[in-house]
Design goal:
34% strand, 1 helix, 5-stranded mixed sheet, 136 residues
């Protein structure tokens, strides 16, 4: 995470064993999501532990889906309560990342999984402004 004013490093997102593929930030709730080639999605709550929120050891919530391929993209809905991720094994996965659902948890299961909704890798995904449609 970089400071845009001076380019200084504020924080390094840790917890992956392979390269990060995508990141997303929710303005509404301060969540950061990062996806990786190691099939995992990690969530950091930048609003928790305000005094030490930029330390590298702040725990991440891990999202565990049915995918066996790399997670190539992620996007929060406008409210920041849902996250959609796309995988290299042609899956879209929707997660409930509302505060009431993630509070006190270290792992989270999917809300909905759309298997084989593409014929090939999913490279990008996004929510509509109303949050009722996902484009991939």
């Amino acid at each position: 995470i970089l400071n845009t004013a001076d380019g200084s490093l504020l924080r390094t997102l840790v917890g992956f064993t392979k390269p990060i593929m995508s990141v997303a930030y929710s303005v509404m709730n301060g969540l950061i999501a990062a996806t990786s080639e190691d099939t995992l999605i990690h969530i950091w709550n930048m609003n928790s532990n305000i005094d030490d929120k930029l330390t590298e050891d702040t725990p991440a919530l891990t999202l565990i889906g049915d995918n066996s391929g790399s997670v190539s993209c992620c996007s929060f809905n406008t409210e920041g309560s849902r996250l959609v991720t796309g995988t290299r094994d042609a899956m879209l996965i929707v997660w409930d990342v509302s505060y009431s659902n993630i509070q006190g948890k270290t792992e989270l299961k999917p809300l909905k999984t759309l298997h084989a909704c593409h014929q090939d890798w999913i490279n990008d995904c996004a929510w509509s402004d109303l949050g009722d449609i996902v484009v991939s």
